[in-house]
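Because discrete structure vocabularies remain unfamiliar, we reproduce here a specimen of the format, pairing a chain with its fold in token form:
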Amino acid sequence: MKIKIAFKVAAVVLLAAAFLAAAAGCGNKKEEDKARPVVKVGYFPNMTHAQALVGLSDGTFQKALGDNVTIEEHTFNAGPAEIEALLAGQIDLGYIGPVPAINGFVTSKGELKIVAGAADAGVVLVARKGSNIKSVSDLNGKKVAVPQIGNTQDISLRHLLSEAGLKDAAKGGTVTIVPADNPDILTLISRGEVDAALVPEPWGSRIVKQAGASIVLDAGEVWRGGKYTTAVVIASNKFLKEHPDLVQKWLEAHVDLTERINRDKNSAKTVVNSQIEKLTKKSLPEDVLNSSFERIVVTYNPETESVREFVKLSVENGYIKGNPDIAGLFSLDLLNKVLEQKGLQPLQ
């Protein structure tokens, strides 16, 4: 009887020890997971975010950060939503247009930084078939569509109109500016409900192909000879302060991807298109893909002067009030460190 009792006691002790060991193991695993760094990145399923599409797809960013770092991907369709997510701490880094980045910086009183560029140009002015629009001055009395009031294309259009001595009908001018989503702009042009549109690629190429529209201004003619940014990389101040090492590693991969994409555009186009199809359930026709890619300059240069001009134009058009201090908008030290290490020219 004593032997049986002793055996039962021993079994209970062993079971308890096993349970405690398992619990300790789970605790350690939870602590390890908790300590594992996470980089939350936002981007669009857009050709101007090519580095994000390629680098997240082929593991370039993961390799640069290391296997002990987790990457969380978040996709967006509008700049304001991505800015809101970054300021709420839902993402740490983001690929985004310059105007939403400027607005986010101003409204948050400097809680984000532009740490690199991603793409230049890639915007075209198209006119519907039969409109007889050959230049910006021909937009007098016409309806012109943009993807969103206050976005990069809207501000660029207003600058073009101003240079031609024209202005928005809502401000006493003769040009009616019509905001609409890019797919809807294609429909409006096809139906003749608007006469022209200033749109980013691939929508310019799609409108030309599907609606028989003509190019009035190509990407290099819209502004600054094509030296204007259409996508930048931003980081929250919090993440930049707490994890400068991870931001630098991300930028190392970003620069490598930029150079690789420019060396082999055909391979890059294939990956970009497959990722767009994966994220949107629809790929781009080959001719649209090719013409769109030709109009986009993949770069790590944020074209700081063009961003400053976007700020000026935003103020002039009433989208930003007052005279904002944007001295802290750029943080290019880490990018320049990467460029110097690679023997490339640092940016001013």
Remarks:
- The CA atoms of residues 53 and 252 lie 16 Å apart.
- The longest strand covers residues 112-121.
- DSSP finds 14 helices and eleven strands in the chain.
